[in-house]
Prior knowledge:
A: Rossmann fold; four-stranded antiparallel beta sheet; B: two-stranded antiparallel sheet; about 0% strand; ABC_transpr_LolD-like (chain A); transmembrane transporter activity (chain A); ABC transporter ATP-binding protein (chain A); ABC_transporter-like_CS (chain A)
Amino acid sequence: MDTAKDTGRHLFTARTVTAVMPRRGGGETTVFRGLSFDVDGGEVVDVTGPSGSGKSTLLTAFARLNVHTSGTFALDGRDSDTFTPQMWRSVVAYLPQTPTLIGDTVADAIRLPWTLKVRHSERAHEPKDLLTDAHIRATLDDMGCADIDLDRAPRDLSGGQAARVSLARTLLTKPRVLLADEVDAGLDEENADKVADLLKKAADNGTAVVRIRHRAPDGRATRMVVLKDGVLRDVPLPTAAQVAAAARDDDFGGDDVAAAASVDGADGADSALRKER
Amino acid sequence: MNGYFDIDIWGLVAAVVMVLIAAGISALMKTGVATSLVWATARSLVQLLAMGFILQYVIRQDNVWLVIGLIALMLLAAVQITMGRATGAPKGLVGIVLLALVVTMLLMLAIVAELIVRPKPWYAPQLVVPLTGMLLGNTVSALALGLSRFFESMRERYAEVNTLLALGATKWEAAKPSMISSIRLGLLPSVAMLASSGIVTIPGMMSGQIIAGKSPVSAAKYQFVILAAVAALTLVADSIIIALIYKRCFISYDRYFVPEPAKQLSLKDLIRLRKDVHPDESAAELKRAAADDRRMSAR
């Protein structure tokens, strides 16, 4: 199954992904073993599954950030070991669930990736005004973040604003694969929708987007996978009618649906399937 | 001796009584420092007495090997005290701490003793030994503070370090804020010492020289050179250490992983058998060994 030909066909491939966590007080727990995953540019893949099934672990393994994971990863058929860690993470970008914005102002926080060594040579190819306040302003406006003042301290932002700034920071670095770890958790419907739009737009521009989600389906995913009991399997996308129903439920008792989905996303998907039948 | 006042046995007793009163107050307030205060007092009295005799002996003998041996002993003690005070630092730093101390000490002796003061013979114990002592005393506290602060900061900055790495930062870039905060904290005492010298703190070396009849200008010059050199070299030692250890917080493929702190051995642990104190130690040891193995094989 993991032949070289197989890995060459997709933008991003992961083979034999294994996570073994040390247990408190000694011993080890295998979260999953030998998983495979592929994704192509333009896709939006939703990863769901119960809490603790290792969804975040899987995404941090893809970015090769996680100490307790191993596996073989390739981009355009090129093995991650032939990249420097910095190069790999700038093309396979992991976006943490909790936004950590570093800098005195929002503008500084967004400029941060461009102060790193890995992008020094890249900057020569980018427009000269890339990091001016005016350009950042225009980009944020374009992303539907007109409400965010560049001179504000990041800690003064609301949860939704911080999530969008964090996303904008990563999107501006134009990764080929974007691994979004439940970036819409704890956001209200309106902000969650804005975040989903940003991700969809990135996918339309050719980025491969992988989202961990606990919310009800929002109709933007092109594919859905469930991680449960150490197994990663494809599930059919919810139909348009189901998405509409979920949105309608959100308008009235949206919290219940979201809560039910977040308790056990996999079961949520399963019940959606049952309804379909 | 002119202008010198001896302390009799009652003076010592009075000092001890003062410490006991302080210890009593801390015991009443349950601060938990009473025992260590009494212990440190006893230790300091014994150490000072011993050093007095050793110093006198070494100065009288005027033998280069005795001077080198004494300095080597002081260095080892400095390493032990640094490691003991650097809470939160992982084990396996002894070599690096020793290296930083040796380098700064050699710089100190080369610049201050041999270039500025130029004593005869070059190893003059009355200059070289106290000079080393002043440098080590200062560097030890700076290094211990700096080490603790660095690892504490790297643990606190968990989310920030991972975010930086995810954005493509190198190990150096991800660790830099912790390095700066650690070096800054380690240097604060030196800066405070420089600023307060002559007003709040009157260095013993300087008063000694004035008592011995030296001119105030020459005593002050002497003291200034030493204080300035100590402050500057403390920065050197701190920088060497931090530059050599920051990589300890990362493993293969530049992934963030702060090693577990080394177990601090208190006197109690040494008196009782360590097994009684840490029944779960073998499990923790095994886990750490496994982590080490993984690290090695990952490389």
